[in-house]
Amino acid sequence: MLRKTLSALVVAGALALSGAAAASAEEYPAEVVISAADVTPAPGVPTLLTVGGLEGLTEVQFDITGCTGATFQESGTARVVRTVVDASATATFVGTTPGACTVSVSSDEGVLGSTVLTVTGTTSGGGLPPTGGTVPAAAIWLGVGAVGIGGIAVAAAVARRRATSNR
Hints:
alpha+beta
């Protein structure tokens, strides 16, 4: 009796979950996907943003927040409205000041999604962008000395145990 009841509950649960999945797939639009050609652009370097999954929409708005000196190449401002073509839209982001910028995409229905672009590096010269602080040479040598002294202490302790156990 218990096995039949458990089997019936499992089948009922599977049917309920599969029905809910089918209903949710019909009621909600496809997921909006925002992609960037480069999520860490250098200052002044344009980056193309593409938004897909915009079925049923005719236009969307791109907005930049959380940073200074970033604009869209098309408008020269932090906001641009783009026409949806084949369920996607594009805008070109240009950041001038290093830092993180949030780009959100919205329609009349509200915010559809967002992504973060981090403007890195400096505008002058080439080479790699800075990645953090520096460690003074004295601190490195202090660490090497501490490891060396620790190694000598371990070797001395092992030698002392061997000498004591051989007696």
